[in-house]
């Protein structure tokens, strides 16, 4: 390779290294873009009713913050009370279990007594782990502050994007060659439509899962059924893993009443998860976003491996956008046109060898030359 090629290779490697170092910032920017696109669609819906742009944006943002405040208002107070009760009910349960074990030692043969575990010794062995967990409380607090700062960053970026979305879109489109800019603008329209479909589908699935959870938990007389149902619906945003995460607090609260309730809650959430994964999500997403179930699971594993929890949370919208860009750019514009380019070269050679044509480019006319300008990309769209 010559010097220019080596410089280009080094520049590509350095660019990839820099992008990898700032991958978390890029994910936060993408989260802001998804949120801004959703709120922008909602603001456009209000504009169709004759409301001005500024007021429409304020209404959309107000609805978003009202949902956030309502979520924490429903979740935090009941959970605080229930887990406060859990803190003194667990030691009582351990003491009762210890007395039951001691009573059982007096009723079993002496040969089996050494094989019965001593609860006090188990607690002493677990004490170092408990101390380590308590010692990491500072790290937990600092991690919470870091998460809060990231959320604030996403909200600020969302507000900036909502203020003038067309300006940022033009900047992004101008990063591409002039003949391809109209094509890029069409791909961005498809991404926006697909993200809107994903948001609508996710909200429908969240609502159905939350309603089923509230009804089931209320039938079992589990405390804080509404808060647990709202939490189950919210965690449904994380497919496959979200329903599993939502069953833990529900079982813990049900355990305060009776052990059989915890088992019943586990069975209830199992059936809800089966209904969600086999019926609700496939039916809803088939009408909104066409993603194969295996592709969804593979994308989750990929993004959680390389980007952590934030990548898992954004796995589906990232997959939706990546699918559109791969389908439109790589498949349609590169691979599908690969054989056609060789065919055009062969036709050009035939035209150049035709009698009466001194210059092959003189044979170009609107009838036999495929244009590569912006108009041609518009026609392909």
UniProtKB/TrEMBL annotation:
Chain ranges passing through the membrane: 6-35, 55-76, 147-168, 197-215, 292-316
GO cellular component: membrane
Superkingdom of the source species: Bacteria
Pfam family, one: AI-2E_transport
Protein name: Permease
Species per Swiss-Prot/TrEMBL record: Tolypothrix tenuis PCC 7101
An annotated GO BP: transmembrane transport
Annotated Basic and acidic residues bias: 368-381
InterPro entries registered for this protein in UniProt: AI-2E-like
Chain coiled-coil ranges: none
Region (Disordered): 352-381
Signal sequence, renumbered to the chain: none
PANTHER family, A to Z: TRANSMEMBRANE PROTEIN, TRANSPORT PROTEIN YDBI-RELATED
């Amino acid at each position: 390779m010559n010097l220019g090629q080596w410089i280009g290779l080094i520049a590509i490697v350095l660019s990839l290294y820099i992008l990898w170092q700032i991958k978390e910032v890029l994910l936060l920017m993408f989260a802001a873009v998804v949120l801004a696109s959703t709120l922008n669609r909602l603001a456009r819906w209000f504009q169709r009713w004759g409301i001005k742009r500024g007021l429409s944006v304020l209404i959309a943002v107000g609805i978003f913050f009202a949902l956030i405040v309502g979520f924490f208002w429903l979740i935090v107070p009941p959970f605080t009370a229930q887990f406060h009760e859990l803190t003194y009910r667990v030691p009582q349960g351990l003491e009762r279990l210890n007395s039951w074990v001691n009573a059982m030692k007096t009723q079993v043969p002496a040969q089996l007594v050494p094989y019965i575990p001593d609860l006090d010794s188990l607690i002493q062995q677990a004490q170092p782990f408990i101390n380590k967990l308590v010692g990491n409380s500072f790290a937990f607090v600092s991690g919470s502050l870091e998460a809060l700062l990231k959320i604030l960053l996403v909200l600020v970026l969302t507000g900036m994007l909502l203020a003038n979305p067309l300006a940022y879109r033009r900047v992004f489109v101008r990063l591409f060659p002039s003949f391809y800019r109209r094509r890029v603008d069409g791909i961005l329209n498809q991404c926006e439509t697909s993200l809107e479909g994903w948001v609508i589908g996710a909200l429908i699935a969240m609502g159905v899962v939350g309603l089923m959870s509230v009804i089931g938990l209320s039938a079992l007389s589990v405390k804080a059924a509404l808060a647990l149902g709202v939490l189950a619906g919210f965690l449904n945003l994380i497919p496959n893993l979200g329903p599993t995460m939502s069953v833990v607090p529900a079982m813990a609260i049900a355990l305060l009443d009776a052990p059989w309730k915890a088992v019943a809650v586990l069975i209830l959430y199992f059936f809800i998860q089966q209904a969600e994964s086999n019926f609700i999500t496939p039916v809803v997403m088939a009408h909104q976003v066409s993603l194969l179930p295996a592709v969804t699971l593979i994308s989750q594993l990929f993004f959680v491996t390389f980007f952590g929890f934030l990548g898992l949370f954004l796995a589906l919208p990232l997959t939706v956008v990546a699918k559109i860009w791969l389908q439109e750019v790589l498949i349609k514009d590169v691979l599908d046109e690969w054989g056609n380019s060789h065919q055009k070269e062969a036709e050009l050679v035939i035209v150049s060898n035709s009698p009466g044509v001194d210059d092959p480019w003189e044979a170009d006319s609107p009838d036999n030359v495929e244009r590569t300008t912006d108009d041609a990309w518009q026609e392909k769209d």
